Amino acid sequence: MDKVSRNPIEAVADIPPGASLAVGGFGLCGIPSVLINSLHEQGASDLHVVSNNCGVDGAGLGTLIASRRIARVIGSYVGENKEFARQYLAGELEVELIPQGTLAERLRAGGCGIPAFYTPAGVGTQVADGGLPWRFDTGGGVAVASPPKERRTFQGREHILETAITTDFALVRAVKADRHGNLVFHHSARNFNPLAAMAGQVTVAEVEELVEPGTLDPDEIHLPGVFVQRVVPLVPAQATDKLIEKRTVRS
Asked: Over 80: is that where the pLDDT of 31 sits?
């Protein structure tokens, strides 16, 4: 099955307002920047995004944050995005902050068909007890708080129940793909990309290099094409246009 889309605009054209999205990347490393920009151009709003973080001001998911197109975020890090933090604290954006490893496992579980799992991460904190502010009101009070989680003890250690995450769509970036959607990621850009891809019902992958089926060694493939519905080959300028979150140089 040839899963190649003609262009990124076509690949995200059917993402509707209110859709949920799992988005790969860590900081600016491995983010599907071309698909994010195409979605920004497409105009969908009220989006529910699952991502480790939301880029930076003016780049990555930060562009969707700045244009008020995201209504809710599940992530583990507010990070370098001042507008993200401002909208959250002003009660304009709902944010569910969860431990990073828990986020990774919730996405993986969703892709594997596992509805929930127990983990010790968060025990003894508001992650388990509830009360984390998901949304503030305009006066700085908590309008929506996280609920307490179910608990069980295994081998003498307390655990909390976490539910899997699945989304309507997923946007990811890979260094290489074939027409069947088998993906290869480059070093640390692998981060959350395979997990986000697994969680999406419709996964769109922007790729730096497209090869023909049979070219990839099966041992080279990081994510099989069964998890990918659309492949978007990037032009050379798009493939090499990569931002650095924190540039450090010698004085």
From this structure: yes
In angstroms, rounded to a whole number, what is the distance separating the alpha carbons of residues 1 and 34?
24
The pair phi, psi for residue 75, each rounded to 5°, is: -160, -175
- Alpha-carbon dihedral angle through residues 103, 165, 83, 27, given to the nearest 10 degrees: 50
For 78, the 3-state DSSP assignment is: coil
Encode pLDDT of 79-136 as tens digits: 789 999 999 999 999 999 999 999 999 999 999 999 999 999 999 999 999 999 999 9
Q: Could you say which DSSP state residue 35 is in?
A: H
CA dihedral (13, 19, 25, 29) positive or negative: positive
DSSP of 151-214: EEEETTEEEEEEE---EEEEEEEEEEEETT--EE--GGGGTTHHHHHHHEEEEEEEEEEEE-TT
